[in-house]
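Page 37, continued from 36.
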């Protein structure tokens, strides 16, 4: 494989940090400027990218986003700046300077009413500010040049806030665990997604949208149960009750949140698989890896 020069935006984030390690592990040259060095909401700052101020690179991978789904309902301007406008600035800078761009997006561009895994061609219909602004970002990227948009879902990783970490902490604190069981999606481990994104940039596929999420469709309660099972196995702790009894199922209606979420947002991996990209590992294996690397 040819050695690539990659600039990762959002390198300090949950996905970005694993992506930097993955690409470096494959022998690629990686730069990951901080949000202070390169503020992507500032067009002047992004123009310095195109002028070569952050060094030479062939690929730009954008992992930066406004990811607080509920807070976005109130902080609309920040979500627009980071999710809708900034990807357009990055795309223009890449188009002007002849760089390749891979932009990361989300399953929340869908309304979750389809009842079967979404393909890349499925019509979007975001339900909230986060999903709407992410969709606008996708559109800006796709309209500007021959770029890649990789949608992922239900991310978890050792760096940053994520659902499995919250579950483990709550369990350690002996809090009652009540989790919604009527929303379904693909839990996706950042380490595995980083591998898939690495495979994609190395293949340099036909531009467009790619769905890149984990191979299993779970509801949140089942994801919580699997998380605690993996935690028990890896830390060799025995509980007085097994996780399946410990985590009780509730309905979305019993857990009101500011943002409405898609009830079924599974993403089909078929298009990426057709390029020869291997699917991600089963949740059980990925969760064990996650627990081993976890810093609470
Ligand atoms: N989390 C999920 O469950 C989930 C699900 C589906 C899709 N996604 C998508 O996956 C991608 C990665 O998400 P994540 O959860 O890994 O994100 P994250 O942990 O919230 O990280 C966000 C990153 O964006 C950077 N950033 C914030 N404002 C910036 C600015 N003005 N200029 C440059 N960088 C800025 C942050 O840097 P600082 O630390 O310096 O602020 C941080 O590195 C995003 O596109 C997200 O929409 C996430």
């Amino acid at each position: 494989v040819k050695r690539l020069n990659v600039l990762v935006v959002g390198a300090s984030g949950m996905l970005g940090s694993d992506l930097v390690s993955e690409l470096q592990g494959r022998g690629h040259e990686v730069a990951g400027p901080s949000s202070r060095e390169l503020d992507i909401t500032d067009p002047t700052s992004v123009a310095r990218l195109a002028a070569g101020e952050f060094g030479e690179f062939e690929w730009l991978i954008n992992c930066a986003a406004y990811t607080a789904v509920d807070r976005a309902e109130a902080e609309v301007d920040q979500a627009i700046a980071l999710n809708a406008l900034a990807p357009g600035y990055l795309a223009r800078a890449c188009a002007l300077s002849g760089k390749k761009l891979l932009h990361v997006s989300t399953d929340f561009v869908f309304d979750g009413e389809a009842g079967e895994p979404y393909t890349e061609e499925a019509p979007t219909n975001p339900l909230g500010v986060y999903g709407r602004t992410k969709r606008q970002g996708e559109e800006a990227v796709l309209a500007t040049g021959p770029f890649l948009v990789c949608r992922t879902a239900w991310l978890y990783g050792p760096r940053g806030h994520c659902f499995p970490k919250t579950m483990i902490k709550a369990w350690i604190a002996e809090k009652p665990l009540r989790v919604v069981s009527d929303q379904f999606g693909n839990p996706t481990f950042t380490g595995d997604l980083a591998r898939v994104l690495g495979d994609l940039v190395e293949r340099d596929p036909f531009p467009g949208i790619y769905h890149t999420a984990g191979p299993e469709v779970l509801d949140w309660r089942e994801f919580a149960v699997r998380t605690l099972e993996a935690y028990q196995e890896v830390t060799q702790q025995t509980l007085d009750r097994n996780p399946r009894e410990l985590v009780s199922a509730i309905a979305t209606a019993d857990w009101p949140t500011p943002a409405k979420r898609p009830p079924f947002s599974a993403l089909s991996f078929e298009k990426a698989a057709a390029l020869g990209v291997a699917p991600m590992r089963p949740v059980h294996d990925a969760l064990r890896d996650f627990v081993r690397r976890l810093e609470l």
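The mean pLDDT is 96. Flag for discussion at group meeting. The first strand starts at residue 5 and ends at 9.
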